[in-house]
Amino acid sequence: MLAQHSTLTKFGMTHPLTRSPQQAGLELLEVDYPEKIKEIGRFRIKGWKMEKGVDPAFFSKDTWIDSLDQRANHWVITKNQQIVAASRLSFHDSLHDVPYADFMKDEHKRLVENRRIASINRLVVAPDYRGIGLSGLLDQVRIDRAVAQKAEVIIAFPQLVRLEPLKKKGFILIDQLENIPEMPERPFFLMIKNL
Question: Which domain of life is it from (predicted)?
């Protein structure tokens, strides 16, 4: 059974997972910066560096940490105290500091102007733990927090494989965007969920 950190249970959240032997001993934790941030940054690199279509130079770094990490909300799922999944949620009063907002077209920007924005990003699940519901769990935790914090819209910039799961969570596909430098050969999309 997946254990939940007390800050999550106070919102009355429940997150069912697919039954799997891999779920035994999994624990969902919300972590504050800088707790575990270096471990999370290393996990992001490790989780992506062997994927097709990524920039090998970017993913040869030791960690993937940026300035937004300092004020973002972070969740990890651990097994035996090792991270097997991680994600981030951040809040924005404008598009100025939304990751990848520069890739949005003007008509996309108008959809979220003058609204309290949340963005979900940096979702990574270790290959051995994919397909058992961890990304959906982390999506729901972030959506629930965005609602609790009175965000008006959530922006996501998912990869192709994440389109259908996010549609099931109420996100609308807006457009395919220019591929990002970190992943130059992987399709990159914009999705929005109005809250």
Answer: Bacteria
